[in-house]
Amino acid sequence: MPLRDGCRRQLQRARGLCLAAALCVLALALVSDASPTPVSLLGINYGRVGNNLPPPQAALPLLQGLGIARVRLYDPEPGVLRAFAKTGIELYVGVPDQCLAAVAEPAGATSWLKDSILPYLPDTKIVALTVGNEVLTGNDTALTRNLLPAMESLHGALAAANLDKQIAVTTAHNLGVLGTSYPPSAGAFRKDLLQYLCPILDFHAKTGSPFLVNAYPYFAYSDDPKGIHLDYALLEPSNPGVPDANTGLHYPNLLVAQVDAAYHAISAANSAAARVVEIRISETGWPSAGDANEKAATPESAARYNSNVMRLVAEWKGTPLKPNVPLRVYVFALFNENMKPGPASERNYGLFKPDSTPVYPLTYKPAHGDFTPGGNSTGGDNDYYDISAASREPTGRRWTWAQAAVAGGAAAALMVAA
């Protein structure tokens, strides 16, 4: 099948000459190479739908300040992939929607992999490909039909290159795939999507790749502010939580309730896959500003939510249903993106402004000490991304980040709070 125009243009860009050497020099100048990357379950989404964002190497000191060594990208932009070379940062790289038809064919998947991923290995640590984003809830029947074939073809291309044990293939779902989510024990997929989700779950079970969900308590609270307590949505530890009468499990916050609803949905749809498939949160966040009718979008609530997410992940806690499976979370997002369509909130999810200064004060407890780009990873997502047992005890003092100058550019620096 011939490649679509959008995908062809992307492949041509990947073949084109880039300022790789300059980017690598700048990136390495910003960071130390003395210590290894720690094991951590926290990641962040690095979207670039903006016309005022800094160059990709400017993200490195921000990630260092946050102690984050896992990043999700939405496309394989050559300059970005090269900027992360030799940093030890683990990348989830998106396969854009417009490429799905092409990569659904084995030859197209091989070509895409050759042009978009292989040139950056092994210097850039790519650990997963995320095929499309929220495809099943996007009302595009062609994309929906191509989703699983694209995943299978890419996995096959990786296997042919002996990379299938280093790079997983998955896709991220909007929680709108659920027809029922409350209480969590009643979680079930939409009936019209079962024909697609059941074989996707078989694929995850066969390959060992995670089931990704974009989970946003913000939307649930915004839709029902009278029925959902704000502190429950913000993951505040002081909130009494909500019981599930069917299971006797107690839910301290809405995020873990959403994850367990998805676990119950998987179990109801595909009991065999439910025994082995792990859910990971590919996006979650809270906007710091919005339109006049988006009253929950405030910097105070965003700071509380993202701080609590980081605290929750740092504690290596699972959900009430899966207490022994620590949550793995990618916060959305690194920067505010001024070109995103939709309500104003869509352009205000970032932890940082385009000038690399914080959008709001954020306090959190880092999971396993400081992260230093340029080192080697200790643990990580190899062999289908089972984190090693190293450094499993939660550690860390309470930190705040503030603006500082790093290598001539504005960045985030950590300061021990009194």
TrEMBL record:
Catalysed reaction(s) here are:
Hydrolysis of (1->3)-beta-D-glucosidic linkages in (1->3)-beta-D-glucans
The protein's enzyme class: hydrolase
Q: Name one GO cellular component term.
A: plasma membrane
- GO molecular function terms here? glucan endo-1,3-beta-D-glucosidase activity
Q: Which GO terms describe its biological process?
A: carbohydrate metabolic process
- Keywords of the record: Glycosidase, Hydrolase, Signal
EC number(s) recorded for this UniProt protein: 3.2.1.39
Spell out the InterPro entries in the cross-references. GH, Glyco_hydro_17, Glyco_hydro_17_plant
| Signal peptide as annotated in the record | 1-34
Family, per the entry? Belongs to the glycosyl hydrolase 17 family.
Specify the protein name: glucan endo-1,3-beta-D-glucosidase
Q: Tell me the classification of the organism that encodes this protein.
A: Eukaryota, Viridiplantae, Streptophyta, Embryophyta, Tracheophyta
What is the gene called? LOC123098071
